[in-house]
Amino acid sequence: MIYIGVTGWGDHDIYHQGVAVRDKLKEYAAHFPTVEVDASFYAVQPARNVEKWVKDTPADFRFVVKAYQGMTGHQRGEIPFSSKEEMFDAFKVSLTPYVESGKLAMVLFQFPPWFDCKKENVAYLRYCRDKMDGYPVALEFRNQSWFSAKFRAQTLRFMEAEGWIHSICDEPQVGEGSIPTVLKATDKEKTLVRMHGRNTAAWMKPNGKNWREVRYLYRYNKEELLEWKENILKLQNETKDIYVLFNNNSGGDAAGNAKEFIQLMDIRYEGLAAKQLDLF
């Protein structure tokens, strides 16, 4: 199956007027069968939050949960754990409602641009996979060295051998901090595709004002989406389920592009939540 959605459910133009923040996921689930949980990157989520999200979505809905920042070495601000073991254990406890409901698609480990291909980082990936034993985990790099001519084949073999789901990226190709689109599944059951946009001018400006917002300011045109339709059809020969998440939402384009891509893929989802009626 092909699951198409966006990253986060807070800021999109799909909601009827006046919808409360607490009800947005319910309405989001009337449009898409999957979502990426970004809140888990900034803080390990309390059980009450995850239990509500699980309750607010239909039985066939699936969550891609982003790994907590301390687990991937981002560490923006103070990490409120005394050890890595405590941090991983707390994060796994937070996954319990997803797992028990059958709604966990995967946990996404997205590593920062300075996480390059070297021995100690390979060892840390093994550590992460061991700590997440029993959970489906996806791996996304932000340093081009992993897919350089020297290491590409080895990286893919490593991911397959260690049980990592490949998070395939579409993004600008500008420098070491950009990853090429490598159309190779490393897991026969699941593959993740994340659409970051192609805003080349803003991609490599980490010191600019509001750079995180600006870099994802991009709307895919029909020709680009048709290109990805062909890519997805190829990947279907290698993997059972494909999750496609649009992350180009700085200008509110992610949901529109996701809906357009659903149409281009000629997909009719069943089992979505009932849409809210905006009578006024």
TrEMBL record:
Pfam families: DUF72. It comes from the Bacteria. InterPro entries: DUF72, UPF0759_sf. PANTHER family: UNCHARACTERIZED PROTEIN YECE, UPF0759 PROTEIN YUNF. This is DUF72 domain-containing protein. It comes from Siminovitchia acidinfaciens. The lineage of its organism: Bacteria, Bacillati, Bacillota, Bacilli, Bacillales.
